[in-house]
Specification:
This protein is α+β, with helices and mostly antiparallel strands and 388 residues long. The chain is 47% helix and 12% strand. It has a domain at 4-79 and 181-258. It has helices at 4-42, 46-76, 91-102, 125-128, 184-214, 222-251, 255-259, 301-307, 335-343, 347-351, 374-381, and strands at residues 132-135, 143-144, 149-150, 155-158, 163-166, 170-172, 177-179, 266-271, 282-290, 296-299, 317-323. The strands form four sheets. It has a five-stranded antiparallel β-sheet with strand order 1-8-11-9-10. A hairpin with a 4-residue loop joins β2 (143-144) and β3 (149-150). α1 packs across α5 (184-214). Residues 88-111 and 299-303 have low confidence and may be disordered.
Length: 388
């Protein structure tokens, strides 16, 4: 049985070349055959031909530039989560991973490597140094058994890339790789401009077909029929992708989230030290302290304060573990803020493939991604004290 991953890799190499070839053929057909030969020379409509070319070339250039932008973003920076300390995986683990990938059916495999139990686990501090992070039911961050490290918020493991990807959306053969937070805005621009370009090409070819039939000529230029067919197929597909991408942007979700619409999230939300226990939620205090047996335990704030010097007490941070309801999205900021978090803050960024999305910036001390009104609602729902 052929290796499906090898087939995919070849598809990702071949299809982008075919896409560029289609754009080249379309340019020749629309400009040379339709606008110049048909409209300009055969019909003698110089103004119409010039006007159509003025509309065609800006759209054509924007489509090619946006495609190049998303292609190189996917190839050079697909949004991979760096491996902890740059450590490489050992050979036996790599073999086990490839064996599992051959038989994998789910988006993410059941874990075979347990979470790191060390209180000094690499990368753990990056989570509890923030005020809010996505976690498991016990308050620890999500763990990737394939990468053998903690997963940042909204990251998923890609079987094809063998790494975790931030805001992974889908593996797209048309752009040659994984569409994620580093390329989703460029991908949206590409599908939008492709739909507009196909609509223009289709309109030009239909106009030429109608004029040809009105003149009594029953012999139709094959290029006219070809452009109608190509623009219809690519236009409908890209228009549908644009609508889907727009929906994802406005609701701040990904294709992975859409497939798991009923999922719930656990959020570790920082609360003031000394907050009394509550039956409404569990708590965890970082840094984790080792037990006598060498394992770790999520310590309570009072224990941490009693066992640490006054100078070190500020290093302990206590988090309440809050669970959302199905269909609730803690990263839903509202339609306008969702749009700006992906497409940018300026109109020039919405239409020109210039910069990466603002959501690619994870330097905030509050959380990996901005959280929406649901966080305040969860605080009220679980009766959390204010963290001051």
């Amino acid at each position: 049985m052929p290796d499906t991953r090898a087939i995919k890799r070849w598809n990702f190499r071949i299809i982008p070349v075919l896409i560029v070839g289609v754009f080249g053929v379309a340019a020749y057909a629309v400009v040379g055959r339709l606008c110049v030969e048909n409209i300009l020379r055969a019909q003698g409509k110089t103004g119409l031909a010039a006007g159509l070319l003025v509309l065609f070339f800006p759209l054509y250039i924007l489509t090619l530039v946006s495609y190049a932008r998303v292609f190189f973003a996917v190839q050079l920076d697909p949004g991979l989560v760096p491996l902890a300390n740059g450590a490489d995986r050992d050979e036996p683990g790599e073999k086990r991973r490839h064996s599992r990938l051959r038989h994998a059916r789910d988006a993410e495999e059941p874990p075979w490597a347990p979470p790191d139990s060390s209180p000094d686990s690499p990368g753990l501090e990056a989570f509890y140094s923030k005020d809010v992070f996505a976690c498991e039911a016990d308050g620890r961050p999500k763990w990737c058994s394939e990468c053998r490290q903690w997963k940042p918020d909204r990251a998923h493991h890609s079987r094809e890339l063998g790494r975790c990807v931030r805001k992974m959306d889908h593996l797209c053969p048309w752009v040659g790789g994984m569409v994620s937070e580093t390329s989703f805005n460029f991908f949206t621009q590409f599908t939008f401009y492709t739909a507009c370009l196909c609509a223009l090409c289709g309109a030009i070819s239909v106009y030429c077909l109608v004029k040809n039939l009105d003149s009594g000529n029953i012999v139709v230029d094959g290029w006219v029929i070809a452009i109608i067919a190509i623009s219809s197929i690519f236009g409908l597909f890209s228009f549908g992708m644009t609508l889907t991408a727009g929906h994802y942007i406005l609701t701040n979700i990904t294709n992975i989230d859409m497939l798991r619409r009923r999922q719930t999230f656990n959020l570790a939300v920082r609360i003031p030290r000394g907050t009394p226990p509550s039956p409404k939620y569990q708590t965890i205090t970082y840094p984790l302290l080792p037990t006598a047996a060498g394992a770790t335990m999520p310590v309570q704030a009072d224990y941490a304060s009693a066992s640490a010097s006054a100078r070190d007490q500020d290093a302990f941070r206590t988090f309440a573990i809050l669970k959302t309801e199905p269909y609730e999205n803690p990263w839903h900021l509202g339609f306008w803020e969702n749009w700006k978090s992906v497409m940018g803050n300026k109109p020039s960024e919405w239409f020109l493939p210039i910069r990466h999305s603002p959501c690619c910036n994870h330097d905030s001390v509050h959380s990996d991604y901005p959280l929406g009104p649901l966080l305040d609602e969860l605080r009220k729902r679980y009766e959390l004290p204010d963290d001051k």
